[in-house]
Amino acid sequence: MGSNGSGMLSGEDIQNICQDTGFTSKQVRRLYSRFKSLAKPSSDYLTREDLLCVPVVGINPLGERLIDVIINDFGESNKINFKQFAVLLARFGRGKVKISNGYNTKENKLKFLFDIYDRNHDLKIDRNELLEVLKMMVGGNIHG
C-alpha cells in the first residue's frame, strides 16, 4: 500500500480498501487517521505495544487477549498494517452494506469470538483455554 509521502493514503489505496471492506472513502480516511494516531511516528503498522496503549484496552479484562487475536491472527510478523486493520474492523459492520468478500458475516464474527478462546487453533475450546479466559474476566477466584 503506497502513500504519497505526506502520511496519507493514495486515492487508489482508498478505493481498493473501500471495495474490499465496504467502508465509504470518508470512513476509510477516518480509520486511517485513527490508525496513524495509534502508530509510532513514521510507522505504517501497529504493534502489540501500540495497541496496549489504547486506554480502553487496559480496562477490558480481555484486552490483551483481543490484542493477541488482532496481531497474531490478522497481522503478520507481530504487527498489523492499515489494510489488515481495516479488514479486521470490517468484520464488525452491521451487515447492511453488501461486502463482496463477506467479512461481516455472522460466521466471521463468531469465528473471531471463538478465536479469543481457541488460541492454539485446534478448533476446540479445551478446559484450560476456557479457564484462562474466565480467570481474565473474574480474576484468580476460579480454580481448575
Protein described:
This protein has 144 residues and is mainly alpha-helical. The chain has a single domain, classed as Orthogonal Bundle (Recoverin, domain 1), CATH 1.10.238.10. The chain contains 8 helices and 2 strands. The chain has a two-stranded antiparallel sheet with strand order 1-2. The longest helix has 14 residues. The protein starts with 10 loop residues before the first helix and ends in a 6-residue tail after the last helix. The N terminus is likely disordered.
What is the topological layout?
Blueprint: H1 11-21, H2 25-38, E1 45-47, H3 48-52, H4 55-59, H5 63-74, E2 79-81, H6 82-90, H7 106-117, H8 127-138
Antiparallel strand pairs: 1-2
Family: Belongs to the calcineurin regulatory subunit family. CHP subfamily.
Protein name: EF-hand domain-containing protein
GO molecular function: calcium ion binding
Proportion in β-strands = under 5%
The CATH class is Mainly Alpha
Round the mean pLDDT to the nearest integer and report it.
Answer: 85
> What is the oligomer described by this structure?
single chain
Architecture, CATH level 2? Orthogonal Bundle
CATH topology: Recoverin, domain 1
Which strand order does the major sheet show?
1-2
Strand tally: 2
Largest sheet: 2 strands, antiparallel
Structural class: mainly alpha
Rounded to an integer in angstroms, the radius of gyration calculated over CA atoms is 17 Å
Subcellular location: Cell membrane; Cytoplasm; Nucleus
InterPro entries: Calcineurin_B_homologous, EF-hand-dom_pair, EF_hand_dom
Pfam family, one: EF-hand_6
Keywords: Calcium, Cell membrane, Cytoplasm, Lipoprotein, Membrane, Metal-binding, Myristate, Nucleus, Phosphoprotein, Protein transport, Repeat, Transport
